[in-house]
Amino acid sequence: MKNFYGIIPPLVTPFKDNGKLDGDALRRVIRYVMDGGVHGVFIAGSTGEAYAMSDAERIEALEIAIDEVQGRVPVFAGTARITTDETVSLTKAAEAAGADAVSVVTPYFITPTQDELYDHYKAIAGAVKLPILLYNNPGRTGVNLNPDTIARLAKIDNIVGIKDSSGNMGNAVEMIRLCGKDFSFFCGFDMIIHPTLFAGGSGAVPASGNIAPRLIADLYESFIKGDRAGSLELQQKLAPLRQAFGLGTFPAVLKEGLNLMGVNVGRPKLPVRPLSDEAKKKLRSVLEGLGLQPVE
């Protein structure tokens, strides 16, 4: 199975005023991050408001991404649902649509045991030939994939890596140690990309990569080329953008950030509100501090 690496931003999903998927705007987002040097794109993750999308909308977004990318980088599809059967069905649909890999977050709303999680992922892996990235995001799902469970799952041929958004570096180090160099470990918390790479990680799936893809791609490339000081400097430079996520309900800041950069993606789906005028001013200041050039 292929090893994945680098910076793979989980893309926002643009919607029209009527709530329908805006395919043209999604293409603009993809072109923007691709021009920023990313190593893959991730469709219909939590950043992409997948919770607000039907299966058909997820597959439509995936097909648009595949067409736009034209094989230049891998296209990852988020295919998680709550039940195993639903997740298997959506994962099969993503495979048929041509995804390069899928990412499956732990079930949400329910709180499965570690053995139940193992069985869940084993069933998904057995239903497709696609590479699968586990996805651990306990802050959103209330469920944590333990390092020992991840190590068991890593023995399944097409479970090739994990996106971990816990922000727990101790767990990250243990996952990397237990799973070995052939298992791709991606940080999902933008504030610790540099230390994740130092610990042996493969890269990151950073939400802020929607807005500042070049900065984060350069962070990664600097590290890989041996410029550890330059990589650390870029990690520190990124911090105000990640901290600015608190200016609104996720993912409002990401969508407004792209709007400010002239990549118009509309507003989040209700009940999430767009940013207030004051929050927009603060976000504009953060973007300017990163050396970006927001439109007027």
Net shape? globular
> What is the multimeric organization of the chains shown?
single chain
CATH class wording: Alpha Beta
CATH superfamily: Aldolase class I
CATH fold group: TIM Barrel
Tally the structural domains. Answer: 1
Which percent band covers the strand fraction?
Answer: 5-15%
Mean pLDDT: 96
Q: What is Rg?
A: 18 Å
Name the helix and strand elements from N-terminus to C-terminus, one letter apiece. EHEHEHEHEHHEHEHEHHHH
Instruction: Please report the number of helical segments.
Output: 12
The CATH level-2 architecture is identified as Alpha-Beta Barrel
Q: Terminal Cα separation, in Å?
A: 46 Å
Going by helix content, strand content and strand pairing, the class is: alpha/beta
**How are the strands of the largest sheet arranged?**
1-8-7-6-5-4-3-2
Largest sheet: 8 strands, parallel
Helix content: 40-55%
Number of DSSP strands?
A: 8
Low-confidence stretches: none
